[in-house]
Every structure is written in C-alpha cells, then in structure tokens.
Design a protein that fits this description.
By secondary structure, the chain is mainly beta. It is built from 1 helix and 8 strands; from the N terminus they run E-E-E-E-E-H-E-E-E.
C-alpha cells in the first residue's frame, strides 16, 4: 500500500512531512529562520548548508515560545545536531493540531 499523500503542494510520506512549510501565521513574523526551501528533508535527515545551519536558533533543553506551522530550530543531543520543526498533524488530518518533528542535520559541502 502506497502511503504517499499529496496535500496542497506538499508531499507526506507515511504520515511524515517531506518538506517544511513556510510560516504563514502572522504571529510568527518576528521569528527569524532560514527560508523553508533551503532545507531538504527526508524521513530521517535534514540536508542544508553550513550557512543555513548557522541561521537556525539553538535550543538544547527547551522549545522556543510560540507554536507556528513551519517554525524550525536546531538542538544538539548525543553529540549530533537535530532540526526540530512544527508541522500540521497529518496523521490525524487535523490542520488545527501541530506536531513536533525532528531530523538529524547533515551539512552539504
């Protein structure tokens, strides 16, 4: 059974997003982060340049305030960097609910 879904212009594989949404909530306009299309994700990794990684705010033991679809930051855990981001809960198909997602960061040379 193919569990790929096309939702708008986004693709969701097996309930996990394969692209990060832009922040569209007006309350998120002051959060600074790299453009969503500068980060490529698959089910386990986030691929980006070092300069894009440097633009991500780092929260190692907490989450930043404000919960908006597309908001992303990085976290160091276990000696590895992780991309953390909010996305719509596609498993429950509820656009009013958000999930916290993580992918291991891989720096492109």
């Amino acid at each position: 059974m193919n569990r790929t879904q096309f939702i708008g212009t986004r693709v969701v594989e097996k309930g996990r997003p394969t692209a990060i949404s832009p922040i569209t909530n007006p309350l998120g306009k002051h959060w600074e982060q790299p453009a969503h299309d500068e980060v490529i994700i698959d089910e386990t990794h986030a691929f980006m340049s070092q300069s894009v990684c440097d633009q991500l705010k780092q929260y190692d033991s907490t989450n930043p305030t404000g919960t908006y679809e597309g908001k992303m930051w990085k976290r160091e855990s276990g000696g590895k960097l992780w991309l953390i981001f909010y996305d719509v809960d596609w498993k429950e198909h509820d656009p009013k609910m958000l999930t916290i997602n993580s992918r291991r960061i891989v720096i492109n040379e």
